[in-house]
């Protein structure tokens, strides 16, 4: 038996709340109804008999939740019973609390799309809209499956970028640590040897030796400053404005920018094609797809293109005028419009874009590693060369 907190109304209209023990939420509702109480909010007591594996929900957890929800609904499970089943063994506290809040809204007569938007704000913007479309067309399980599939593609795309940058990032951290070590423990030894000849050595050597002396004399300050800098960078990165600025810069980089553009195009085409296949109007499908685009500049262009389509322009013409959509995509959009198979053509565009993004991810990986190695080697090489030049100058002075 589990304990549930409830809020409800008595037959005379008076509000009542309390705790009740029951096998599940439906049993609790039945018991309260037998007592003459109409429950409008009920939830399992947090932490009672439950141990969670983690507190915060990850993107993978949200994807798993949507996929499980779609699978159970497709198997014929009622919506409320589906949430009860998912809550029984949910390992994430945050996701469990969000599901309880959604279930409460559903018990009160709310719609799943509104409840998802209200209680799971970290879901992709297209998710509640596609769910709303499924509710309107009686294809909720299908739309949820499509949401889960798109979320899986987004996760795969993000994982490809992380994998591409993981090793270069490790090299950067290790290289920075090696440089700090050299400045703190190696360079000061040379400073002691060259103390009486600093005026005769090259300028680059004097700079390196000066940095080494500063590091050696201020070890706590250097280490504390590095730690604060790393902590500050993490906090700044978490700010939405910083992420938007970083995204805008990333879209302008040579290989990474092309990868992000291909992923954005694929995501836009996939959501638009899926919405059209589900029976949505073109304007609604375009508005829905805009929400999943990462590039602020591209999103603005797509908004302008949507307004142009609403004014009577052909889709491919509007995209050509307001976005940097490639010629192949425009050609496929035109073919789909003329043949009445726009949804099919957009899904083909999505598949082509996803394949291109995978190829670019491999190229990004192959370029990032040697570039990171070359950068770290250049920094360490510069330090070594400056020390060699300093020692050479010392020997020249001694010979003279």
In short:
The protein is mostly helical and 400 residues long.
Separation of the first and last Cα atoms: 94 Å
**Overall pLDDT level:** 82
Shape: flat
In the CATH hierarchy, the third-tier topology of one domain is known as Receptor-associated Protein
Annotated CATH homologous superfamily of one domain: Type II secretion system (T2SS), domain F
SS content category: mainly alpha
State the share of residues found in helices, binned by percent: over 70%
Question: How do the strands line up in the largest sheet?
Answer: 2-1-3
Along the chain, the helix and strand elements come as: EEHEHHHHHHHHHHHHHHH
CATH class placement of one domain: Mainly Alpha
**Biggest β-sheet, characterized?**
3 strands, antiparallel
- The poorly predicted ranges are none
Beta-strand share of residues: 5-15%
Record field, number of beta strands? 3
Radius of gyration: 30 Å
Number of helices: 16
Please state the second-level CATH architecture of one domain.
Answer: Up-down Bundle
């Amino acid at each position: 038996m589990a304990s549930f907190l409830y809020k409800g109304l008595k037959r005379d209209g008076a509000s009542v709340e309390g705790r009740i023990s029951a096998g599940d939420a439906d049993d609790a509702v039945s018991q309260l109804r037998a007592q003459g109480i109409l429950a409008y909010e009920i939830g399992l007591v947090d932490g009672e008999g439950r141990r969670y594996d983690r507190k915060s929900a990850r993107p993978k957890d949200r994807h798993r939740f949507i996929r499980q929800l779609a699978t159970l609904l497709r198997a014929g499970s009622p919506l409320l019973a589906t949430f009860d089943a998912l809550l029984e063994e949910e390992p994430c506290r945050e996701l469990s609390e969000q599901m309880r809040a959604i279930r409460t809204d559903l018990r009160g007569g709310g719609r799943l799309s509104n409840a998802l938007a209200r209680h799971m704000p970290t879901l992709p913007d297209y998710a509640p809209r596609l769910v709303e479309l499924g509710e309107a067309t009686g294809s909720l399980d299908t739309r949820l499956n499509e949401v889960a599939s798109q979320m899986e593609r987004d996760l795969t795309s993000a994982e490809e970028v992380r994998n591409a940058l993981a090793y270069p990032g490790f090299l950067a951290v290790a290289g920075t640590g090696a440089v700090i070590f050299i400045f703190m423990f190696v360079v000061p030894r040379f400073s002691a040897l060259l103390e009486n000849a600093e005026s005769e050595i090259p300028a680059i050597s004097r700079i390196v030796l000066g940095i080494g002396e500063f590091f050696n004399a201020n070890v706590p300050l250097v280490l504390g400053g590095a730690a604060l800098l790393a902590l500050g960078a993490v906090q700044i990165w978490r700010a939405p404005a910083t992420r938007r600025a970083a995204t805008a810069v990333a879209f302008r980089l040579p290989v990474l920018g092309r990868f992000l553009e291909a992923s954005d195009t694929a995501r836009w085409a996939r959501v638009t094609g899926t919405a059209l296949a589900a029976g949505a109007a073109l304007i609604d499908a375009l508005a829905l797809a805009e929400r999943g685009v990462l590039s602020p500049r591209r999103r603005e262009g797509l908004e302008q293109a949507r307004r142009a389509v609403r004014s009577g322009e052909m889709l491919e013409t509007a995209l050509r005028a307001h976005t940097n959509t490639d010629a192949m995509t425009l050609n496929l959009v035109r073919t789909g419009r003329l043949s009445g198979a726009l949804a099919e053509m957009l899904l083909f565009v999505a598949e082509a874009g996803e394949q291109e993004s995978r190829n670019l991810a491999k190229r990004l990986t192959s370029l990032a590693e040697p570039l990171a190695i070359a950068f770290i080697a250049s920094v360490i090489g510069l330090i070594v060369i400056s020390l060699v030049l300093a020692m050479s100058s010392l020997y020249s002075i001694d010979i003279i």
